[in-house]
Automatic annotation (TrEMBL):
Keyword Signal: yes
Signal peptide: 1-20
Species of the source: Amantichitinum ursilacus
Protein name: Late embryogenesis abundant protein
Family assignment from sequence similarity: Belongs to the LEA type 2 family.
PROSITE patterns registered for this protein in UniProt: PROKAR_LIPOPROTEIN
Superkingdom: Bacteria
Length: 158
């Protein structure tokens, strides 16, 4: 019984010590869409590479162990992706992470037809950043406008 109590006390001390590594005034990193590029396509799906700028407003560096994201265009989910790219965002700095996302042909055709040639499509980028100190992830969401489709979508898909 004494051994169990000792083990329990040591476990609690280790757990409390781990919590001290997370600052009380930790601010969520800010994620913005820095670029979108067409990668490849086949009959059923298209792949795009998103460049995400991650800004760290904290005065400590933040290690990112991966992320997931969903890109919606004009209110419709267009593409999803995951990345296990590990990067450390420097204190009060930023880094760009590239993530491949996949859309299916039906989604893409609907979006392109809805956009028209000169319309500026709106987007919503949502997902989670995974940190070793927060394995459940930190949610992010960003909205904005994409450039016209003729600037990032190949002619044969417009």
């Amino acid at each position: 019984m004494k051994a169990f109590r000792l083990w329990l006390a040591l476990s609690l001390l280790i757990l409390l010590g781990a919590c001290t590594g997370i600052p009380h005034d930790f601010e969520k990193p800010k994620v913005t869409l820095a670029g979108i590029a067409f990668k490849d396509a086949n009959l059923l799906q298209q792949r795009f590479t998103l460049a995400l700028s991650i800004q760290n407003p904290n005065n400590i560096s933040v290690p990112i162990s991966g992320l997931n994201t969903t890109l919606s265009v004009n209110g419709e989910e267009m593409a999803t992706g995951v990345s296990n790219e590990q990067v450390t965002i420097p204190a009060l700095g930023e880094a760009v992470v590239h993530i491949d996302v996949v859309s299916n042909l039906a989604q893409l055709i609907r979006q392109v037809r809805a956009m028209g040639n000169n319309q500026t499509p709106s987007y919503k980028l949502a997902g989670k950043l995974f940190l070793p100190i927060r394995p459940d992830g930190i949610a992010f969401e960003k909205t904005g406008e994409l450039p016209p489709a003729d600037q990032w979508l190949p002619k044969q898909l417009r």
